[in-house]
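Folding Query — how this chain folds
Tokens — whole-number codes for backbone shape
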Amino acid sequence: MKLSTIRLWAGTAIAGMALSGAALAQEPVTLVIWSIDGAQGRPGPTDTFSREFDEMNDDIVVEYRALQFDEIVNETLRAYASGNAPDIVSFDNPDFALFSSRGAMLDITDMVAESDAIDPENYFEGPLNSVMWEGRMYGIPKYTDTIGVFYNKDLLEAAGVEPPRTWAEFEAAAEKLTDPAAGVYGATFSARGNEEGTFQFLPVIQMSGGDYSNVNTPGAQEALARMKRMIDNGWASQDVLTLGQYDSTGTFNSGNAAMAISGPWELDRMSEDAQFEWGVTLLPTFEEGGARSSALGGFNLGIMSTTEHPEEAFRALEYFAEQDDRLFPEFNYLPARNDIELPSSGNPAIDEALAVFQEQLQYAQPRGPHPDWQQISKAIYDAMQAALTGQAEPEAALAQAQATIDGVVN
């Protein structure tokens, strides 16, 4: 009897241990996800999709954290160094290589090859290149944007001016469209001494045959000389040296500039604020039919290499990618993909503009990728500022930038 009791207790204990082990096996894993979405008080893609992914998966708990734009890189660097990095993080595309080049991002190339949700061939070349490092894939493009030339149809028609196709035509149009008595400048753009300035000037360097490592080209020198003439002659306001893209486009929306270099993030505001007919055309080239380029904006998503849950984290990336067709109708972001047709907005001007921006994305190139992009970018916008304020001739300003960049990339 005593033996039977022991055997019964032992059997019960073993069964209990088995049940306990099963319970432990079913404990949900926690994924920590960081991005800037939601930091400004309005929902964005990553916070929205993270919540949905959490609700639909009983085996995963998502802890989402929204950070400010100017905090997320340094906060992630600190977290990675201390062993407390998130599982998934979203970076502005030029910042991505800072992490992927140092082994901080998980190589997902092989997982993508087996995925039904993520196909690299469906992404525009520029956004895809921004998540690549040495031929391997370390993330997925989250969304993208680019720039073109907005123009006031009423003013161009009254002046008998066609939308410019070359940079020489852009300057000539700006001269003809300038009307000091009416408070109208021919053009506005952002030549600010920060990343926005580089964002707008780097495509011109690329069109001239250069790139981020080769900035002192004859075409880039010509472009800076042209921009300075426009400012000196009053065809563009002196404020372009300090205005960001938002404020620069505001000058256009108010009717005080006939053309503006800006992007699709402005479409809703423009449709509400601009009291005139407007359109968008591709960025001009140096010559008719010449090489095209454009800025590449937008964010990427990646899994950090320190994650303890790579499979679950990749499932989250797949879910995010499967929602790409919601990016524009719900959040006004352009998908970084060539296989998604944007739905009609109900506003013909916006729909026509979106078609132009999607065409422009075919020519958009990433800033970098390079792990020390911020140093390279500063060299470029410092050169632009020096040339446009008259502190240095364009050739000398770009030569100084080239020397700085050579010290970074070589």
Observations:
- The chain has two domains: 30-144+297-349, 148-295+372-409.
- The first strand starts at residue 29 and ends at 35.
